[in-house]
Amino acid sequence: MSGSNLPTGTICGSTLDGANGLCDSGRVSCVPSSRVLHLRRLPADVCEQEVLSLALPFGRVSNLITLKAKKQAFLEMASEEAAVTMVNYYTSVTPSIRNQPIFIQFSNHQELKTDSFPNQRVHAVLQAISASEVHPGNMLTGGEGRSLALGQSPVLRIIVENLFYPVTLEVLQQIFSKFGSVLKIITFTRNNQFQALLQFSDATHAQHAKAGLDGQNIYNGCCTLRIDCSKLSTLNVKYNNDKSRDFTRVDLPTGELEPASTAAFGVALPPYGAAVFPPTISQHTGISVQAVPGSLVPTGRMSVQTLAPPAVHSVLLVSNLNPETVSPHCLFILFGVYGDVQRVKILFNKKENALVQMSDATQAQLAMSHLNGQCLHGNTIRVTLSKHPMVQLPRGGVGQEEQMLTRDFSGSALHRFKKPGSKNFNNIFPPSATLHLSNIPSSVSEDMLKDLFSSSGFTVKAFRFFQKDRKMALMQLASVEEAIEALIVLHDHQLDHNQHLRVSFSKSTI
After folding, report:
1. Separation between Cα atoms, residue 129 and residue 145, nearest integer Å
2. Which of 9, 130, 255, 352 is the most buried (most CB within 10 A)?
């Protein structure tokens, strides 16, 4: 059976094309419910496992035909009820494969007959699923090396990419509980990424949450959710605190938390400025946490409203600095990668310590999470929250040296995040050996940029201009520490009479 052999007919008085299952009026509602579903706009190289992963949370799949040349598939559920549930669900949540939206509707076919169609691979997949259904937590691996969760585990693994704002355990619970009862959450940081394990009361709820939230942003343009099915069948939570929680056990102790980890992700903070993330309805601002009564999933997309913020300050204490080389300007440039620095004060009697005042508490948390433990001028610096609510400017009568150790940068033209909606919000990454260079004039060549960094004492390992935009490039240096130094020295370096180099950290490698 192939696409060309599919029957054609009439329904609702319109001609129906059996290959695409659409009536010529463009309406889908005229097609009655059926066990067979028609999927369109699939990736050209889609595999059977990926198609099945959309259907498995709703019940057993009886048959599947993929038409890769047409980017379509026909999928037969074991019951019409399961098919109706699946279509109703995906009416409110757009299904996707590899972040590509998929269209699902009822087919005019009531069953799929594939006896004469050489589809042994699909039948092998379906048989493997049938053999594994009774064993919770099983995973099916396809020939392409992709894994398919069989809908048996209620545990999801969550990675938050582009973490511009701290994401707390409470925020995750608030978002995911719209899809079912959340029992346990464990949060942690691995490979410089904020991650979480979240357990639902039911595996179907976990699959629904994955389908609805994977690839969505918590806040406008940042904090992107990447969700996979975990091989774990349950989570073992020992403590109820800001990093782990068992919502079924109020008697668990709080345990001990490391101050740096708690500070980085242990508080719920408001969106950064009303001008940047206004709490109003928008088609592109993230995930809604408000649902229509009785519905399983959010309707529309709204900015997530975080919990009421605790009283935290925007001033950071930076310690173990190199007193011979540190300067207010140096700290302004480095911390300015993660927020708009207002003031910097190097302590006169303890020059290995400094206070850095950010625009708000969110930026302070972000800078602390990325810069604590990094190496600056040969020293591993420590970044913590300060007890001071602001950095005081020196009063009259103090010496010139003490005055020079405190700088007010509130009016600086080098602030990266002053403009609402700036692309800088989407490109905040931990320090790395690869730097992102931008604002490069057309007159500046690769050799000129390499010479600029080399003559400043840095070792250039690799370089590449962006293929579609020569105003940007990637430059890989010998180490993360060297990249930090290079950013401080060469950010805002004048390349010609009216263009200055912009330097930031990149998540890419060359």
Report:
1. 16
2. 352
